[in-house]
UniProtKB/TrEMBL annotation:
PANTHER family, per the entry: SORTILIN RELATED, VPS10 DOMAIN-CONTAINING RECEPTOR SORCS2
Segments crossing the lipid bilayer: 693-714
Pfam family, one: Sortilin-Vps10
Organism whose genome encodes this protein: Alaudala cheleensis
Name of the protein in question: VPS10 domain-containing receptor SorCS2
Repeat keyword on record: yes
Membrane topology: Single-pass type I membrane protein
Cross-referenced SUPFAM superfamilies: Oligoxyloglucan reducing end-specific cellobiohydrolase, PKD domain
């Protein structure tokens, strides 16, 4: 539904994606170094919609220490704060302080109680917002939040950490605006309130003690805080107004006279970065920083550098995350590092840009975290399987019109763009027929992106076709152009396999559902004379076996859309009705892509388990609820047509045996497996084709979620 770019640092893109089932949350994804392939990092990050349709995502990059992020996750209405030290590979809750600002026990103990922070940006650009970090003050984080089982909107107590989130201390009971001076050596805090103020607070020991300062004799309504340029500055300005009708008042506050000298090496001490588990190797290295001693009263100055030393570590499992198309079984548990291929992803499939004669590698399921500098040790990317690029038949051929209109006026220019999703392009020829007598053969048509410009002189309907063909196979794309000019969406629903001379229902689903004066044009095969209806469906039969292309165009005024599907017509085949448990209905988006992917997954698993050729099996998931499907068992191309097939009987027995043995399952997001089993064998299957032969057996699929509340999320990237 929406995509927000979070970060593009260090040759990597972080994006927040709102998927079809989400309303006030987004899923966080991370790219590979090229920014092309994305893997999920964290689900259900809270979002807030602002005026003018602006969206704020509750995620914050902690400045000063690369790889550290804070995020607020919202599940079942409950918001909790998480922290990562390795760019989202692992997430943990924030440890609560043992005592409050008055030294009294907080009685906040994990796993029932943690620290949670508001991660809001300030509407006013001259104040700090709810969480404050700085590049030259690594490890220093100050934010507003509360202790408890979840984040509470009206609680904005102030907490601080000086070791990058390992230990926290409460410093104020109410929210304050924060300003760091002298590389965080001085922390200035002014209360966030609507009443006038004349007192500010400051700390020179990382918030352990606080002093007050009267910055003006007359109370002012504070509008913002500014510091002079440079991280080393000790000069700030408070600006505001005495009354709502007065001009701005600017008050300069200079902390330089409070410090007698510049710091020397003896005034600093070192601290080592660790995560919440105490690991010192983070992002492949041990890093130590220096900070001013609590007892030292001196200025860090312009020459101060916070980084002290770094040491490269040996690689371990936690230095790797799941590659594109893979997910971890338990994303919030660091010890659960095994990655499984998603149900929609085939790791051994050649890449789309695979060229004949070249080699490619299939992923092991892991890749090193970007910017991780570890060396040696564990390498989860080793033992990559090497494959030679095969000659791939063209697939996913498409014809589009640059002007984005399927209806033009006579004499008007029209530009055709031919695109091919998969298959070799160097050895492929493209036969183009524009329908008015113009025919041509192109090479490298989809590689160069060369458009085809044309102009139709006479009114009419023109069948424009492109056939892509190489030694491995061919594909064809068809578009019908009306020379005479748009609906929002159209999808042609048709059963992909049908028996000869059997009735088939062709249904066009359009949005909006009931537009006025809509005409439906139906093309069956290569017939240039369409069937016209005012209803959104057509019942027809196919007298000959083979592949028949069905195309529908919907015209409403000057708006026109098209969809096209291929129907396979056979003399004999068998249909086995399938059904799923009700769990799947909850997560069924009822869109064609989802139904096609689920059907393809079931077909591939059955073919692999039973050794039945995949081209003789076809699983068709039906539209609507409850979720149901038909398994079409087709005769092999070289097998004679018979009323009763021994080979078919053996194949059905093999399918039944595989289901009874619980050998058919696939992995879903969230750490759950979908198990496919044989539920009942008392009903009859259906045999399609001529003759009186009949055989009976039914296979019902029951998809059982291993744990209650499993989360099925359909991804719209398909292979």
């Amino acid at each position: 539904q929406d995509l927000q770019i979070i970060s593009t640092d260090e040759n990597q893109v972080f994006v927040a994606v709102q998927e079809w089932y989400q309303t006030d949350t987004y899923n966080l994804y991370q790219s590979d170094p090229q920014g092309v392939y994305y893997s999920i990092l964290l689900e259900n990050v809270r979002s807030t919609k602002q005026p003018e349709e602006n969206v704020l995502i509750d995620i914050l990059e902690v400045r000063g220490v690369k790889g550290v992020f804070l995020a607020n996750q919202k599940i079942d209405g409950k918001v909790t704060t998480l922290i990562t030290y390795n760019k989202g590979r692992d997430w943990d809750f924030l440890n609560p302080p043992e005592v409050d600002m008055n030294g009294k026990p907080t009685n906040c103990k994990p796993p029932d109680c943690y620290l949670h922070l508001h991660l809001r940006w300030a509407d006013n650009p001259y104040v700090s917002g709810t969480v404050h970090t700085k590049d030259t003050a690594p490890g220093l984080i100050m934010g507003a939040g509360n202790l408890g089982s979840q984040l509470v909107e009206y609680k904005e107590e102030m907490y601080i950490t000086s070791d990058c989130g390992n230990t926290w201390r409460q410093v104020f009971e109410e929210e304050h605006h924060i300003l760091y001076l002298d590389h965080g050596g001085v922390i200035v805090a002014i209360k966030d309130t609507s009443i006038p103020l004349k007192i500010l607070k400051f700390s020179i020991d990382e918030g352990q003690t606080w002093s007050t300062h009267n910055f003006t004799s007359t109370s002012v309504f504070v509008d913002g805080l500014l510091s002079e340029p440079g991280d080393e500055t000790l000069v700030m300005t408070v600006f505001g107004h005495i009354s709502y009708r007065s001009d701005w008042e600017l008050v300069k506050v200079d902390f330089r006279p409070s410090f007698p000298r510049e710091c020397t090496d003896e005034d600093y001490e070192s601290w080592e970065l660790t995560n919440l588990q105490g690991d010192r190797c983070i992002m492949g290295q041990q890093r130590s920083f220096r900070k001013r001693k609590i007892s030292s009263w001196c200025i860090k100055g312009k020459s101060f550098t916070s980084a002290l030393t770094s040491k490269v570590c040996e690689c371990v499992n936690t230095d790797f995350l799941c590659d594109y198309g893979f997910e971890r079984s338990a994303p919030l548990k660091p010890e659960s590092s095994k990655c499984f291929a998603d149900f929609w992803f085939n790791p051994e499939a050649p890449p789309e840009d695979c060229v004949l004669g070249q080699a490619y590698t299939s992923s092991t399921g892991y890749r090193k975290v970007v910017s991780n500098v570890c060396e040696g040790g564990v390498d989860l990317q080793q033992n990559l399987a090497h494959h030679m690029c095969p000659l791939i038949a063209p697939k996913g051929l498409q014809i589009s019109i640059r002007e984005e209109s399927l209806a033009v006026r006579p004499g008007e220019d029209i530009t055709f763009i031919v695109q091919q999703e998969q298959g070799d392009v160097l050895s492929t020829k493209y036969q183009v027929d524009l329908g008015d007598g113009f025919r041509a053969i192109y090479v490298n048509l989809t590689l160069t992106g060369e458009p085809i410009r044309h102009r139709y002189q006479s009114p009419g309907i023109y069948r424009v076709s492109v056939k892509a063909e190489n030694v491995a196979g061919h594909d064809e794309a068809v578009v019908f152009v009306q020379v005479s000019s748009p609906l929002q969406a159209l999808n042609l629903e048709v059963v992909p396999v049908i028996g000869r001379n059997q009735e088939v229902n062709l249904t066009a689903i359009i949005l909006p559902k009931n537009p006025n004066l809509t005409v439906f044009y139906w093309w069956i095969g290569n017939n240039l004379q369409p069937l016209l209806t005012l209803e959104s469906f057509l019942v027809t039969k196919f007298a000959e076996t083979g592949d028949v292309r069905v195309t529908v165009q919907v015209s409403c005024g000057s708006s026109m859309l098209q969809d096209s599907k291929v129907v396979h017509v056979f003399d004999n085949f068998h249909v086995l009705p399938l059904k799923f448990t009700k769990h799947l209905d909850t997560y069924n988006p009822d869109i064609p892509e989802w139904r096609e992917d689920i059907g393809r997954v079931v077909t591939r698993l059955l073919a692999k388990e039973t050794s039945i050729p995949e081209e003789t099996l076809l699983t068709v998931v039906k539209p609507g609820l409850p979720t149901a499907a038909d398994l079409h068992v087709l005769l092999p191309a070289n097998q004679p047509k018979k009323k009763r097939s021994i080979t078919s009987d053996k194949r059905i027995a093999a399918i039944k045996q595989a289901l009874n043995a619980h050998n058919i399952s696939f992995f879903l997001r969230g750490g759950y497996w979908v198990l496919v089993t044989l539920a009942d064998s008392s009903s009859d299957s259906q045999r399609i084709g001529g003759g009186s032969g009949y055989w009976a057996i039914v296979v019902l699929f029951v998809i059982c979620l291993v744990a209650v509340g499993a989360f099925i999320l359909y991804k719209f990237k398909r292979q």
